[in-house]
């Protein structure tokens, strides 16, 4: 941590001039986004400052209960976001419950695994490691879960006849749904696979860049990034599998019938 | 022997029906009257109330897949789940004789389903159900898209299976076909099921 340059609020104000440039551009060209731009920039500043304060307090406290509470709040927000991204949702509490439960399972297992066997901070739940790690795993797991569920519900609505043809010939619900399960999971994993393949060539991951700016030697920052990519891949696979299998369970019943009536009505 | 007591579902009032081995009960009635709903309920593809049994064994007493491999439903617009035709059959070579009886070439097995005509698909869907040898076959307009020769071939095949004991519940809009194949006839209208006298 040698070459780290602290920023003053004056420095931020200078960088913020670029937002003013965007605003002027919007006014000059009649884009009409200047209000939204100002509000979004304001929100970003306030939200991040608040998060910074919360994390500062949390790191100082280093208590298991406080860390767990913040982690839970993150999972609940991510669950809401995963639902919002789906085109056709499950009806009722299943919609929010399934996505959030899958996220809690996947991100919880993967983050705990990383904290207890690789990073091993003392105590193991040290929020300085646990919270950023959870955040990175959650963000990607959320994408995988909402993609998997979107593909599953879309394919089942469109391909109901094929699934029912198999059921009518005596297949059970998992046999009949297998092609849909495979397709949904392939789709859910694709962003992670593509992301890993492109990392370093096309994109420099934000975490690694941040560490380098923070003064960490590039090779050390890269090691962290590799670990994080593995964790993200594991979390996405686990979370998407749990969510898609849960979705199949909910969209069929104990008599092996297709139950599209358990999807919420299509949004206008 | 298929026994149905007080079966009902949304869109269908309670009714009773007995179908003996080798019988063919033709179901007639206007479009949208609930004929397909009736067949789907018997196959347990949609939730329904009442008591349905086969040879005295209640359908709830066995897993739904076991029930449906005995009481098999063939949709009016059959669905497909794989690319090629042969993948929809448990054993394509064993089905070859059946395929040819329905006036289809054996090479059709290698074709993708997407390139087939409606009539070809309808016969293949019939074949993939018959080849599994269910006790009861629930047919939803199985010959609607067929020319006269293919239709006769399908009717002959089903008559032969009936003689071997397979029972049929056959939805048909074709009055002449109903007269040809029915041993009994029921009418579905406005969600009500009534038995119609068949003059033979």
Characterize the structure shown.
The complex is a heterodimer of chains A (about 270) and B (about 200). Chain A folds into two domains: about 60 residues, no CATH class; about 200 residues, no CATH class. Chain A is mainly α and about 270 residues long. In chain A, helix 1 packs antiparallel against helix 2, helix 4 crosses helix 5 and helix 5 crosses helix 7. In chain A, about 75% of the residues lie in helices and about 0% in strands. By secondary structure, chain B is an alpha/beta fold. Chain B has one domain: 3-Layer(aba) Sandwich (Rossmann fold). Chain B is built from six helices and ten strands; from the N terminus they run βββαββαβααβαβαββ. In chain B, the strands form two sheets. Chain B has a six-stranded mixed sheet with strand order 6-7-8-3-9-10, sandwiched between helices. Chain B has a four-stranded antiparallel sheet with strand order 2-1-4-5, with helices on one face. The radius of gyration of chain B is 16 Å and the shape is globular. The model of chain B has no long low-confidence stretch (mean pLDDT about 95). Classes of the chains: A mainly alpha (about 270), B alpha/beta (about 200). Chains A and B meet through helix 6 of A and helix 2, strand 6 and helix 4 of B.
Please tell me how large the radius of gyration of chain A is. 22 Å
Sequence of secondary-structure elements of chain B: EEEHEEHEHHEHEHEE
* Architecture per CATH nomenclature, i.e. the level-2 architecture of chain B: 3-Layer(aba) Sandwich
Beta-strand percent range of chain B: 25-35%
CATH-defined topology of chain B? Rossmann fold
What is the assembly state of the chains in this entry? Answer: heterodimer
Query: How much helicity do the residues of chain A have?
Result: over 70%
> What is the percentage of strand-forming residues of chain A?
under 5%
Low-confidence stretches of chain A: none
Structural class of chain B: alpha/beta
Major β-sheet strand ordering of chain B: 6-7-8-3-9-10
Cα separation of the termini of chain B = 23 Å
Query: Globular, elongated, flat, extended or rod-shaped: what is the shape of chain B?
Result: globular
- Cα(first) to Cα(last) distance of chain A is 53 Å
Total of domains of chain A: 2
In total, the number of domains of chain B comes to 1
Radius of gyration of chain B: 16 Å
Outline of chain A: globular
Helix count, DSSP H or I runs of 4 or more residues of chain B? 6
Question: How can the largest sheet of chain B be summarized?
Answer: 6 strands, mixed
Number of strands of chain B: 10
């Amino acid at each position: 941590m040698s070459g780290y340059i602290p920023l003053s609020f004056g420095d931020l104000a200078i960088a913020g001039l670029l937002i003013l440039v965007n605003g002027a551009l919007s006014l000059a060209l009649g884009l009409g986004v200047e209000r939204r731009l100002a509000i979004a920039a304001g929100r970003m500043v306030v939200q991040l400052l608040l998060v910074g304060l919360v994390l500062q307090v949390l790191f100082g406290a280093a208590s298991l209960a406080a860390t767990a509470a913040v982690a839970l709040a993150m999972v609940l927000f991510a669950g809401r976001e995963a639902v919002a991204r789906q085109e056709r949702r499950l009806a009722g509490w299943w919609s929010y419950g399934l996505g959030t439960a899958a996220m809690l399972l996947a991100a919880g297992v993967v983050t705990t695994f990383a904290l207890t066997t690789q990073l091993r901070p003392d105590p193991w739940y040290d929020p300085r490691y646990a919270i950023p790690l959870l955040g990175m795993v959650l963000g990607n797991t959320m994408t995988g879960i909402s993609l998997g569920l979107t593909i599953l519900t879309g394919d089942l609505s469109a391909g109901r006849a094929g699934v029912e043809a198999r059921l009518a010939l005596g297949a059970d619900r998992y046999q009949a749904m297998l092609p849909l399960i495979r397709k949904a999971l392939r789709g859910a994993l694709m962003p992670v696979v593509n992301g890993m393949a492109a990392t370093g060539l096309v994109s420099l991951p934000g975490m690694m860049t941040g560490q380098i700016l923070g003064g960490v030697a590039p090779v050390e920052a890269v090691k962290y990034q590799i670990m994080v990519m593995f964790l993200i891949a594991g979390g996405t696979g686990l979370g998407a599998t749990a969510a898609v299998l849960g979705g199949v369970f909910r969209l069929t019943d104990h008599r092996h019938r297709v139950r599209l009536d358990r999807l919420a009505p299509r949004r206008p | 022997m298929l026994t149905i007591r007080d079966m009902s579902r949304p869109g269908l009032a309670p009714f009773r029906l007995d179908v003996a081995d080798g019988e063919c009960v033709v179901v007639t009635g206007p479009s949208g009257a609930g004929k397909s709903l009736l067949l789907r309920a018997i196959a347990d593809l949609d939730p329904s109330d009442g008591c349905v049994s086969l040879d005295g064994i209640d359908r709830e007493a066995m897993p739904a897949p076991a029930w449906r491999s005995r009481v098999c439903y063939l949709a009016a617009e059959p669905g497909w789940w794989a690319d090629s035709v042969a993948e929809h059959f448990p054993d394509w070579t064993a089905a070859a004789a059946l395929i040819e009886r329905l006036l289809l070439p054996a090479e059709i097995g290698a074709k993708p389903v997407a390139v087939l005509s409606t009539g070809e698909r309808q016969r293949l869907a019939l074949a993939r159900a018959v080849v599994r040898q269910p006790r009861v076959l629930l047919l939803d307009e199985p010959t609607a898209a067929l020319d006269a020769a293919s239709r006769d071939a399908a009717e002959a095949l089903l008559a032969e299976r009936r003689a071997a004991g397979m029972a049929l519940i056959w939805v048909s809009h074709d009055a002449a076909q109903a007269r040809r194949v029915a041993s009994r006839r029921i009418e579905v209208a406005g969600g009500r099921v009534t038995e119609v006298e068949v003059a033979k």
